[in-house]
Protein 1
Amino acid sequence: MKKKQLLSLILLFIVIPLILIVGVTLFNDGKYTIISIIVVLIACIPFFLSFERRKPNAREILVIAVMSAISVAGRAAFAWLPGFKPVTAFAAITGFKLGPEAGFLTGAVSAITSNILFGQGPWTPFQMFTWGILGYAAGLLGKTFLMNYKATLIVYGIIAGVLFSLIMDIWTVMSYDGSFNWTRYFAAAGTALPFTFMYALSNVVFLLLMYKPIGDKLERIKVKYGIMQHH
């Protein structure tokens, strides 16, 4: 097992559970907001290290920066329509074509950058992690040819929309008083159904519209400059 894979397993399956146990013990089931932020930030570490340790060149970083900028611009353009966000789609397209690490970074960077416009807060790490994970998952799926079909893009878009909503609902529940309980979580998830529908719809729309034109350009850049060939 590679060192970075071992580090990821330790962080995700040992360090994070220990932090949760310590948090419950020391804070008496309170301060979940603080603990959750720490957990999300730690969960991001293996993905960032995985990308950084292989010493990417300037072109790779530039491509991710451009995709993040397009994502931010798209989110700003559709700010008037609640829940209709292109961030997942752009992170996914980057992941499909350039690999899991690029997908994760595009999603995470898009979140923290766009929140300069929409407002930073404790929810930002949740958005970074959630959009990053969706981009990372797209990178894993992109290694198969199935993602070239519209049907699979639609399925991914719907599932990604639901997952984004469910993960962010965790933050919604904890933002009330710093604690978590399932009753409020299910209530929040039910209340968020219209937004969940919009998340999924926006994913499908942007993936169907942008996958081919942007995906083809990313593919040409990858081939021409030999970037991301080892993901």
Note: The mean pLDDT is 83.
Protein 2
Amino acid sequence: MNDTLIVYYSLFHNTKNLALEIAKQTGGTLRELIPENNYSFDYNTAAKEVRNQITRGFCPKLIFGNESIDDYRTIFIGTPNWFKTIAPPVLSFLRQHDFADKTVIPFCTHGGGGFCQIENDIAKECSKPRILPGIAVNGAIVPEEVTNWLEAIGYL
């Protein structure tokens, strides 16, 4: 069994596409986080919902993706950049697991904001992991960029 897990939340498929590429290159197991209540597919409505949840520190109930991480040593954690931080479903996942002795590798997709506070927020929520530098992608997923990043962090 491969001991790498790629966990992600994706509303508009951008983060999902990056997760798929990471899984393809690492052979890791994919796990999509699915909250009990979906966000609106209308961008403006979803933005209002998300901003409110982030402000409150809300952690939605996950109906899929929150299974044990005990069998994995390396965990890639992916999120869209939502208002300079992680998506609430990712926060739910982080707060429900023990990351001691795990290697955590963040990744995100964004519309021009880069990582902002995402790497710091993931580090703050995880319990004693080893955290490697992540990748932030704006636009189309370029496999060579992912390969170069994985090589740079010593994964490949």
Note: The beta strands are 4-8, 29-32, 34-35, 62-64, 74-80, 103-110, 130-131, 135-138.
